[in-house]
Design a protein that fits this description.
It is built from 20 helices and 32 strands. Helix 11 crosses helix 12 and helix 14 crosses helix 15.
Length: 675
């Protein structure tokens, strides 16, 4: 960390209290896919990289590889070089002999009066082939071309992804909640001249006109210099156009009609080199040019398949539901590619988890007999806020639950475990990133005890290390936090930033590299950009993004610690911390909270929140202000926009908020804070 005037390093202050262990029950252990504690030894560094053969052996290979890890272009790692395979074949075709009548996708429309669609593997095979035929014959696409997908949460999204993968086309799915301009920027960056979209979809009970956004995306791409030759439009209701936007002649085509013209077509899967690109995934919230993370075919697919089997503990008979959006990496890895590669049944839900009421998730779980549930702390907090008692009303039984996307506060973790999981489900609190492809830190569900607020150890084959700013290693149990890094490459890691190798090296490998010319992987630790502490038991506790750390009088406080402390105050449902400049302390935390239903704001409650934070973390973490707001400004995926709150606290320009799920709340909060 930075040094003070006496020359001593100033580390992140870590005040988070230790939590008790929770142990998996014998019923779960008895059926688990992995119960051998020796697995960590099998994946020790002295067996690296050949240990990852175990991951690749879960896939069907057209040709076996000759080099497990090629480091000749370090740190752009190439996995399973010489091997050839097809991701679509692995996710669809290879299951047909034994499981063609098994459900591949349960599609749940947002409107409860619409029936659930149960798509078998045979039906998925047919639809993927027909769509691939359109891409090949009508669009003239071939391996290596890029196609932008701007699709909502309907079965057409995985069908289109797998059709692209069948041909070796690189797909770039843009979250449907992003603006047309954001989509157009990504089309320009990926040099994609084909856009595949949908006319409309449901969100919060309303049929949203999505075609208007697609038209804006095309305009934005062309303004940036990328010509778009075709826009293929799936209809939310086949045969019925649900948008008021006109179809543009010779540019826009109904994909449902094109697919019918290719009825029962079969397309042979293109055998792809393992190191070729499967997809581009653009990270959100970046400034400047979008950052396209390119993920490989062989390394990525083997990684998410192994994680789905052994960390998610998915069996063929399970019904698995990941409540993410396929527009994010979580949905790519753990709705589409991982579960389908295993031949699992995966649930896709179109809409808002609380529509039409707070019991919707649990009704879906009950109806489909879901037994593995995968969601984010954002969603857990929202579900707790609007319906903390709802899960008890429904007869569902989860054996396993996942937390993903950000650290989960211990108080929220306990509600998730005790109320949603009914004290029976094992929780894996996973830490990973868009760039990593799959999980890096988590407990192995049948082997390691759970600890609220802690991600757990590095998974088998993953070897975390904490460095301070000078490159000194911080040992487990020291109580000092620093920059979380991974010592070794792994197959799921992204290969580079699309068209920007230098940025890739600078951002992720440059800080602790020992020799820029080295081809030895030991000289290239991966820097995640998260602040963390390694506990004495080897578990990793994430304190937040390094950029989000608040330096109060030389004490670097993780924002997650402060938010977690606030959430332990009675009545608080959500919390968000931002930094405010202070003449004496340098920076101080400003705290925004929203309340559980039935709890009224008061000066007394504000004081209670302040005192709770001070009691849990110490007076150094005491917020300068606590603002009790009616709701937080949120993205369409439910994430709190702390950037907006920071702009309000610091009286800066708030910027464009039109793409938020609730843009009207921003002015209300601004008036409250600024007067």
């Amino acid at each position: 960390m930075s040094k003070n005037k006496h020359g001593a390093s100033t580390h992140y202050a870590v005040h988070w209290q230790e939590e008790q262990y929770y142990y998996p029950g014998p019923e779960f252990i008895g059926q688990a896919n992995c119960t051998d504690p020796g697995i960590y030894q099998r994946f020790s560094l002295d067996r690296f990289p050949e240990c990852y053969k175990e991951f690749a052996d879960l896939l069907h290979w057209d040709r076996y590889w000759h080099t497990t890890l090629d480091t000749s272009d370090a740190p752009c790692w190439k996995w399973f070089v010489g091997g050839r395979l097809n991701a679509s074949y692995n996710c669809v075709d290879r299951h047909l002999q034994k499981h063609k009548n098994k459900t591949a996708i349960h599609f749940v429309p947002e409107l409860e009066e619409e029936p659930v669609e149960h798509m078998t593997y045979q039906e998925l095979y047919r639809r993927v082939n027909e769509t691939a035929a359109v891409l090949q014959d009508f669009c003239g696409l071939q391996a290596g071309d890029r196609v932008t997908l701007y699709l909502p949460m309907t079965p057409e999204l995985p069908v289109t992804m797998l059709a692209c993968a069948r041909l070796g086309i690189i797909h770039c799915q843009v979250f449907a909640g992003f603006s047309g301009k954001a989509c157009g920027d990504r089309m320009h960056d990926s040099e994609s001249n084909i856009l595949i979209t949908m006319d409309a979809y449901y969100r919060g009970g309303r049929l949203l006109n999505h075609k208007v956004n697609a038209d804006q995306a095309v305009q934005a791409a062309e303004n940036a210099g990328q010509k778009v030759s075709k826009v293929l439009v799936w209809c939310r209701y086949p045969g019925r156009y649900s948008s008021s936007e006109p179809m543009v002649e010779n540019r826009d085509f109904f994909l449902d009609e094109l697919v019918r013209q290719h009825r029962n077509a079969t397309i042979k899967p293109v055998s792809m080199p393992a190191e070729d690109i499967l997809f581009l995934m653009y990270t959100s919230g970046s400034t400047g040019r979008p950052k396209g993370c390119q993920h490989s075919t062989g390394g990525y697919l083997s990684y998410v398949t192994w994680m789905s089997k052994y960390v998610q503990d998915i069996h063929p008979e399970d019904v698995y539901w990941c409540l993410a959006d396929i527009g994010w990496i979580t949905g790519h890895s753990f709705i589409v590619y991982g579960p389908l590669s295993l031949g699992a049944s995966t649930v896709i839900y179109e809409g808002v988890p609380t529509y039409p009421d707070a019991g919707r998730c649990w009704r879906i779980a009950q109806e489909l007999d879901v037994n593995i549930f995968h969601t984010s702390p954002t969603a857990v907090r929202a579900l707790r806020k609007v319906g903390g008692d709802e899960p008890a009303r429904y007869n569902y039984h989860f054996k396993h639950m996942t937390s993903v996307g950000e650290p989960i506060e211990p108080d929220v973790w306990r509600w998730y475990y005790e109320v949603v999981g009914k004290g029976r489900a094992v929780i894996v609190d996973t830490w990973w990133q868009t760039e990593t492809g799959g999980f890096l830190c988590s407990t192995m569900p049948a082997i390691d005890p759970m600890k609220p607020g802690s991600a757990g150890p590095g998974l088998p084959g993953i070897h975390p290390v904490i460095y301070d700013d000078e490159g000194n290693e911080l040992k487990p149990g020291e109580g000092k936090a620093g920059n979380l890094c991974i010592r070794n490459p792994w197959p799921g890691a992204f290969q580079s930033i699309w068209k920007d190798r230098e940025r890739y090296i600078r951002s992720y490998y440059g800080k602790y590299n020992r020799d820029p010319k080295s081809r030895d992987w030991r000289d290239w630790p991966y820097m995640a950009g998260d602040a963390a502490v390694l506990e004495s038991d080897g578990y990793v506790r994430i304190l937040g993004r390094i950029d989000d750390v608040i330096n109060v009088s030389g004490h670097r406080l993780g924002t997650k610690e402060i938010e977690s402390a606030a959430l332990s105050a009675d009545g608080v449902a959500e919390a968000a911390v931002v930094a405010m400049p202070d003449e004496i302390k340098g920076m101080v935390p400003d705290l925004y909270v929203s309340l559980k239903p039935g709890i009224d704001p008061s000066d007394e409650l504000e004081k209670k929140v302040i005192s709770t934070v001070a009691d849990v973390l110490g007076k150094i973490a005491r917020p300068a202000h606590v603002y009790i707001v009616p709701d937080m400004p949120k993205t369409r995926s439910g994430k709190i926009m702390r950037r907006v709150l920071a702009s309000i606290s610091n009286r800066r320009d708030i910027g464009d908020v039109s793409t938020l799920a609730n843009p009207e709340i921003v002015e209300e909060i601004r008036q409250q804070v600024q007067g």
